[in-house]
Design brief:
The complex is a heterodimer. By secondary structure, chain A is α+β, with helices and mostly antiparallel strands. Chain A contains two helices and five strands. Chain A is globular and about 35 Å long. The termini of chain B are far apart. The chains are: A alpha+beta, B mainly beta. Chain B: GO terms for molecular function: dynein heavy chain binding; dynein light chain binding.
Chain lengths: ~130, ~525
């Protein structure tokens, strides 16, 4: 799991999580950071998954398992595409909304789970 | 009007004679009588009395044409646009996250995503589903047949072909590959611009006369018009094909440093410190591998040199005992690795490829004169072919694989890690003159055979026989050289002994990568015997 920024700091009893977010006064709930890491690790270990990443509402990647330049490229492009897909669905039927986006290409399949604040992008190489 | 004096004389004469009787005769005596006379008057000439003499004249000016028009200056607004250099997006530092919300989001979507991943893994929905975005070309066809009649008239062969960096110009060198004697015949280097309208296949866009047979060509990697060539006399020349009147840029001249044998291959290399400038590496059968740099006044100066000496070859494979008196190993082909720019493979006259490095330090045991110290570059020797090697090619997709082809008609696929070849294929009963990997498909390569065919091999389809065999010459005269076009990947140019260059358009199966090719190539390379 690539965690750009500060190296992992040893776990302290004050409740700072393993990510190294040790700002005094930060109200990081113990274990939340671990939950995030474990969920992403579970997804990554699935059959055929090449990489995954979490992107925030502005298209800036927050967590990733790929290298920096690839991540930034995927995040920017897929964020725009997801917004376009969502507006397409809502234009056709305003009561409807986008729940999942899948792009299948010759080499692999990209899956995007959208949300109000975040996007989860998973790239899988399906068996052929 | 009579002047007043004469009138007054007549009047006074009439008065004096008393009237009418004077003219009648002299005898009658005049008698005074009363008569009234007319009044003699003189009109006044006084301006005022006469009155103003006037005539009435009138004139009228033509009517003036008038017209009305109005203009209004439009109001305009100015606007300017300035593109900004894109700010590289970087990842948010983790300290600014709100992990609670992130964890909640992941909890919500995780189940759905894992369900989809599983379904995808087991799905057969897309099996055999293929989408064609580009027009499919089913067969290989000949796009152009290019030749230069004066060179063909001299019976010259096409010895080497090169595409330029933009992929639009193909250049060929004319010479003879079957002459054993030292030849002094003049020869040509011709270039055709295939993108030009009105391309005349028998009229090259640029022709350069060279003093001796040209045996190899290489276009500059970034300058579309600079071309390096090696001659039968051992010289290396660099031309600028955009100046047909005076194309020669640099030459080595015939000094002590120059090769003493024909130069079989030239390659452009980036300079070690300034990667935008390039130097020329030349390989000849005198065993020397020389690096040249263009200095002012049109001279190519030797910067580094290597010599391949048989005593210094690593004994990783059993070689034939060399003939007495000869210690140099003639090198006929060179290929640089696309992954490690200082690593290269030399093909030799002894039939064994040699892995070499530009960074080798050991001095070569050779008595050849040279202005820079010659080094021994060999690091590993591979197991030999049955005859001299004419061509080597390093795979652009795998760092350890390379092909070599020679006069025994076999193509060997070697891995850098072992001396024995991974695959040995017999493609022809005659010589094989050139072998090249495809720049787009990791498992495809092409070979030029002495039977007049260009054979395309797809290791994915069949590892025994060629997928396509293109007949270039009708009478079976050999095809001496071939090159893929790395910009327009469906083009393949091949030159033969009849002096023609044929540009083939490959079918789509040779230009589009399949889904698992890189993995298959890795698997092939991993079959290294332990």
């Amino acid at each position: 799991m690539v965690n750009l920024g500060s190296p992992p700091a040893p776990r302290r009893s004050k409740g700072a999580d393993r990510l190294g977010t040790s700002l005094p006064g930060s109200r990081a709930v113990p274990g939340r950071g671990e939950e995030v890491e474990e969920t992403l690790k579970r997804i990554q270990s699935h059959k055929g998954v090449i990489g995954n990443m979490v992107v925030n509402a502005e298209g800036i990647p927050i967590r990733t398992t790929l290298d920096n330049s690839t991540t930034v490229q995927y995040a920017g492009l897929l964020h725009q595409l997801t917004m376009k897909a969502r507006s397409t669905v809502r234009d056709i039927d305003p009561q409807n909304d986008l729940t999942f986006l899948r792009i299948r290409s010759k080499k692999h399949e990209i899956m995007v789970a959208p949300d109000k604040e975040y996007l989860l992008i998973v790239i899988q190489n399906p068996c052929e | 009007m009579a002047p007043p004096t004469s009138l007054s004389q007549a009047a006074s004469a009439a008065l004096a004679t008393g009237g009418a009787a004077s003219a009648k005769g002299p005898g009658r005596p005049g008698q005074l009588q009363d008569e009234t006379l007319g009044v003699a008057s003189v009109p006044s000439q006084w301006r005022g009395v006469r009155g103003i003499r006037g005539e009435t004249k009138s004139c009228q000016t033509a009517s003036i044409a008038t017209a009305e028009a109005s203009t209004q200056a439009r109001s305009h607004a100015e606007a300017q646009v300035q593109t900004e250099a894109p700010v590289p997006v970087s990842m948010l530092p983790p300290s600014r996250l709100d992990t609670t919300r992130l964890a909640a989001f992941l909890q919500r979507v995780e189940a759905m995503v894992i369900r989809e991943l599983n379904k995808n893994w087991q799905s057969h929905a897309f099996d055999g589903f293929e989408v064609n975005w580009m027009e499919q070309q089913q067969t290989v066809s000949c796009l152009h047949t290019l030749c230069y009649p004066p060179a063909q008239g001299q019976g010259l062969h096409v010895t080497s072909i090169s595409w330029n960096t933009t992929g639009s110009v193909v250049a060929c060198a004319y010479g003879r590959l079957d002459d054993g004697d030292w030849s002094t015949l003049k020869s040509f280097v011709c270039a055709w611009n295939l993108d030009r309208r009105g391309l005349n296949p028998r009229q090259p866009s640029a022709v350069v006369e060279v003093p001796s047979a040209a045996l190899c060509l290489a276009f500059h990697p970034t300058q579309p018009s600079h071309l390096a060539g090696g001659l039968y006399s051992g010289e290396v020349l660099v031309w600028d094909m955009s100046h047909p009147e005076d194309p020669l840029l640099w030459r080595t001249g015939l000094t002590d440093d120059t090769h003493t044998d024909p130069v079989y291959q030239v390659v452009w290399l980036p300079e070690p410190r300034q990667s935008h400038r390039f130097q020329v590496l030349s390989v000849a059968t005198d065993g020397k591998v020389l690096l040249w740099q263009g200095v002012g006044a049109g001279r190519l100066q030797l910067t580094e040199g290597f010599a391949l000496v048989i005593q210094q070859l690593p004994r990783s494979t059993k070689l034939r005992k060399p003939p007495r008196g000869e210690t140099e190993v003639g090198t006929t082909a060179v290929a640089f690795s696309s992954f490690d720019p200082s690593l290269f493979v030399l093909g030799t006259e002894g039939g064994f490829p040699v892995k070499c490095s530009l960074t080798a330090e050991e001095a070569a045991l050779t008595r050849m004169p040279s202005s820079v110290p010659l080094r021994a570059p060999a690091q590993f020797t591979f197991s030999p072919h049955g005859g001299p090697i004419y061509s080597v090619s390093c795979s652009p997709f795998h760092r350890n694989l390379f092909l070599s082809a020679g006069t025994d008609g076999h193509v060997h696929l070697y891995s850098m890690l072992q001396a024995q070849p991974l695959i040995s294929l017999q493609l022809s009963y005659k010589y094989l003159f050139a072998v090249r990997w495809s720049p787009v498909r990791p498992l495809v390569f092409a070979a030029a055979s002495g039977e007049g065919d260009v054979q395309l091999f797809d290791l994915q389809k069949s590892s025994q026989k060629p997928t396509v065999s293109i007949k270039q010459t009708e009478d079976g005269s050999p095809v001496y050289c071939l090159e893929f076009n790395s910009q327009q990947t469906q083009l393949l140019a091949a030159g033969d002994a009849k002096g023609t260059v044929k540009v083939w358009q490959l079918s789509t199966e040779f230009t589009e990568q399949g889904p698992r090719e890189t993995e298959d190539l890795d698997q092939l390379a991993a079959e290294v015997a332990t």
